Amino acid sequence: MSDKKPATGISAEREIPQIPVTSIGPLLTNKAGVAKAMTVSERTVDYWREQGIIPYLSLGNRFIRFDLNEVRQALERYKVEARAKRQR
Predict the structure, then answer these.
(1) 54: burial class by Cβ within 10 Å (0-12, 13-18, 19+)?
(2) I want to staple 26 with a disulfide (CB 3.0 to 4.6 A). Which of 5, 54, 57, 67 is the partner?
(3) Is the Cα torsion angle 54, 56, 62, 63 positive or negative in sign?
(4) Cβ contacts of residue 35 below 8 Å, gap of 6+?
């Protein structure tokens, strides 16, 4: 029996994690790494890349890498602030 709780989805108030930059340069990862860090599917990462929503590095068709800090900054543009509830 596991103590893990089931995933409940993405919260509107969830904080996107800040990834530290190493002394040798930015932290690069593949599509699976972005998906895990942002808690989305790999297909969503593909869509974001295809639509130009997130930046990436491409050295050929099969070697694509992402800077997680740049991805986080790109996604910040789409952040929607909560609005106060309307009173009647």
Answers:
(1) buried
(2) 67
(3) negative
(4) 41, 42, 44, 45
Name the residue ranges covered by the structural domains of the chain.
Answer: 28-76
67 dihedral zone (left: phi>0; alpha: psi -120 to 50; beta): beta
Question: Cα 45 from chain centroid?
Answer: 8
Q: What is the pLDDT of residues 48-85, one digit of tens each?
A: 999 999 999 998 888 999 999 999 999 999 988 888 77
User: Contact at 8 Å (CB) between 22 and 16?
Assistant: no
What value does the CA radius of gyration of the chain take, rounded to a whole number of Å? Answer: 16
pLDDT at residue 41 tops 90: yes
Give the strand pairing for 57-58 and 28-29.
Answer: unpaired
Residue 49 near residue 38 (C-beta atoms within 8 A) = no
Q: Which two tokens stand for residue 14?
A: 């969830």
Q: What is the pTM of this model?
A: 0.64
